[in-house]
Write a structure and sequence with these properties.
Length: 156
C-alpha cells in the first residue's frame, strides 16, 4: 500500500513494487520526473516530518539486505545522498541541530555508513560527491560560500 501522510513516500514502496513485478522493461528513456518547487516540503526548514526520510532509508536498507545483498553498496549510496540532503536542511534551519539532536545524529550515522562508498562511486557526479563530503564534515557554510563565489565568478 502507498503510505499516506509521509514524505519521500515513493521511495518507501518502490523496492517492494519492483520486487513483486513479474516483468520489468527498460526503455532507455527517462519517464520518471521530479518536480522541484521552491515552496515544497523538501526545500522547507527541518521539522520532524523529514525524519520519514530516515525511516524510509532504514526500511529500504533492510529490504535490500534481505533480498538483494549484492546491491547493499548501491543502497548505502542512495541513503547517504538522502542523509546529506536532510543534513543540509538541518544545517540551514537555525537551532535544528540542537532541537532535533537525536534525529540529527541518526542522519549523521546514515551518511557516515555510506560516505566512503559514495565518494568512490563513479556514477555519482564529482560535484555531488564533494557536496556530500562537505555535509559529512559539517561544512555547509563553506559549501554555500563556494557556490556563491562560483556564481559570481561565472558572471564575469
Amino acid at each position: 500500500r502507498y503510505p499516506i501522510g509521509i514524505i519521500n513516500e515513493d521511495a518507501a514502496i518502490i523496492f517492494q513494487v519492483l520486487y513483486r513485478a513479474n516483468k520489468i522493461v527498460h526503455c532507455g528513456k527517462p519517464l520518471y520526473h521530479y518536480v522541484y518547487r521552491t515552496n515544497s516540503i523538501s526545500k522547507a526548514k527541518y521539522t520532524s516530518k523529514k525524519y520519514d526520510v530516515y525511516k524510509n532509508c532504514v526500511s529500504i536498507s533492510n529490504f535490500i539486505r534481505e533480498n538483494f545483498d549484492k546491491q547493499e553498496n548501491a543502497c548505502k549510496v542512495y541513503c547517504s545522498l538522502c542523509a546529506a540532503g536532510v543534513l543540509q536542511t538541518i544545517y540551514d534551519t537555525p537551532g535544528a541541530k540542537k532541537k532535533f539532536k537525536n534525529e540529527y545524529l541518526d542522519f549523521r550515522r546514515l551518511l557516515r555508513d555510506g560516505i566512503f562508498i559514495l565518494i568512490k562511486t563513479p556514477e555519482v557526479s564529482f560535484k555531488t560527491r564533494i557536496w556530500s563530503f562537505m555535509m559529512y564534515l559539517n561544512l555547509n557554510h563553506l559549501y554555500k560560500l563556494i557556490r556563491k563565489v562560483n556564481s559570481i565568478w561565472k558572471s564575469f
